[in-house]
């Protein structure tokens, strides 16, 4: 079970037949339309297939998008758009707004919507791997790679294809640039979480881990701020997750910063840093409960039940006690260390 990453639901879409009687003539054109229909159906099928891996997803996505290009760009290699761009109406739901679909008669709308789902699939694949208690090094690398791919897809859609839409997305819809940006930032933050876990495992310098944790917390804060003007009815749950992750990684930053201070014999400052970590960890725990009680899109995950989350609580407690002992020795130099 994936305790760690919040995931919004995949987008749903209406079937598309790609039958253009009276427009498409000749066996070659008919074959392209048949291939479009079958490759689209295959891609949609893979989104919910738990046996699908990144190679299968990439091959299926490449197959469909290469055919769809004929409905977007002119085949004569000019900068003109295809005459078929507006021939087909496409319907897609949004990840936050339930079963209320958006529709546009535009192949670019289809490309962005399907690409959005491909990116979401990579985040869900990463989440499934990351949800394991004893994740291997290779699996951790796969999680990191999948989240980077997802961020790259979201970013490419936002920068290269959104500006081409004739009808801009309404506020809070998936194809609004602000919402896509939130997905990009979340993917970046989660990829960095993998880096932090690896740094801790390899026992890197506490100062490095503190810096990475602080940067990750800022990513989550930025993602939360990006969603701040959306309707609470469909953004509250997602934002609660982003907020609790921000508190959690800020606590991590204070905890490891405290270790750095302790190593420099700055016990008083180390204690204050660990006390701040303790407060933030308690706040993150409270937010986990609030997140679980908040209604909204996506299944409720349980970050507080994840081993990585629980380990921080023990680390803060033990490091604070160590700082207080060391500080006691400094205040009472004649006391013999045990």
Keywords, please?
338 residues; mainly alpha; Serine Threonine Protein Phosphatase 5, Tetratricopeptide repeat; 2 domains; two-stranded antiparallel ribbon; 9 helices; elongated
Commentary on this structure:
- This protein is mostly helical and 338 residues long.
- The protein has two domains: 1-202, alix/aip1 like domains (Serine Threonine Protein Phosphatase 5, Tetratricopeptide repeat, Alpha Horseshoe), CATH 1.25.40.280; 204-331, no CATH class.
- Helix content is 64%, strand content 2%.
- It has nine helices and two strands; from the N terminus they run ααββααααααα.
- A two-stranded antiparallel ribbon has the order 1-2.
- The longest helix has 32 residues, at 232-263.
- The two termini are 43 Å apart.
- 38% of the residues are buried.
- The mean pLDDT is 89.
What is the element layout, followed by pairings?
Elements: H1 27-47, H2 54-68, E1 90-92, E2 102-104, H3 107-130, H4 137-161, H5 177-201, H6 206-226, H7 232-263, H8 267-293, H9 307-331
Antiparallel strand pairs: 1-2
Helix pairs in contact: 1-2, 2-3, 3-4, 4-5, 5-6, 6-7, 7-8, 7-9, 8-9
For the largest beta-sheet, the strand count, sense and barrel status come to:
2 strands, antiparallel
Residue share in β-strands:
under 5%
| Total count of strands | 2
Instruction: Write down the CATH topology of the largest domain.
Output: Serine Threonine Protein Phosphatase 5, Tetratricopeptide repeat
The coarse silhouette is elongated
Q: Identify the CATH architecture of the largest domain.
A: Alpha Horseshoe
Keywords: Coiled coil
Domain BRO1: 90-338
Coiled coil: 267-294
Pfam families: BRO1 (PF03097)
């Amino acid at each position: 079970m994936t305790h760690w990453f919040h995931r919004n639901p995949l987008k749903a879409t209406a079937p598309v037949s790609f039958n253009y009687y009276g427009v498409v003539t000749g066996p070659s054109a008919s074959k392209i339309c048949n291939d479009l229909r079958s490759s689209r159906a295959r891609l949609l099928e893979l989104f919910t297939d738990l046996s699908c891996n990144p190679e299968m997803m990439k091959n299926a996505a490449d197959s469909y998008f290469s055919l769809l290009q004929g409905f977007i760009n002119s085949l004569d290699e000019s900068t003109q758009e295809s005459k078929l761009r507006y021939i087909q109406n496409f319907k897609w739901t949004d990840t936050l707004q339930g079963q209320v679909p958006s529709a546009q008669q535009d192949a670019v709308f289809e490309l962005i919507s399907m690409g959005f789902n491909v990116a979401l699939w990579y985040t869900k694949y990463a989440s499934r791997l990351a949800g394991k208690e004893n994740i291997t090094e290779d699996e951790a690398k796969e999680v990191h790679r999948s989240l980077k791919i997802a961020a790259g897809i979201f970013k490419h859609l936002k920068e290269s294809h959104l500006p081409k839409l004739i009808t801009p997305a309404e506020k809070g819809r998936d194809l609004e640039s602000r919402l896509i940006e939130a997905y990009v930032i979340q993917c970046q933050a989660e990829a960095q979480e993998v880096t932090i876990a690896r740094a801790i495992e390899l026992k890197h310098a506490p100062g490095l881990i503190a810096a990475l944790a602080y940067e990750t917390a800022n990513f989550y804060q930025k993602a939360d701020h990006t969603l701040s003007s959306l309707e609470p009815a469909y953004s509250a749950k997602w934002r609660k997750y982003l907020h609790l992750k921000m508190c959690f990684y800020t606590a991590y930053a204070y905890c490891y910063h405290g270790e750095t201070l302790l190593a420099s014999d700055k016990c008083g400052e180390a204690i204050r840093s660990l006390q701040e970590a303790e407060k933030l960890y308690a706040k993150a725990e409270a937010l986990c409960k609030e997140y679980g009680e908040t209604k909204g899109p996506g299944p409720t995950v349980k970050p507080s039940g994840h081993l990585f989350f629980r380990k921080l609580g023990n680390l803060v407690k033990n490091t604070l006690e160590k700082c207080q002992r060391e500080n006691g020795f400094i205040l009472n130099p004649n006391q013999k260390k045990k």
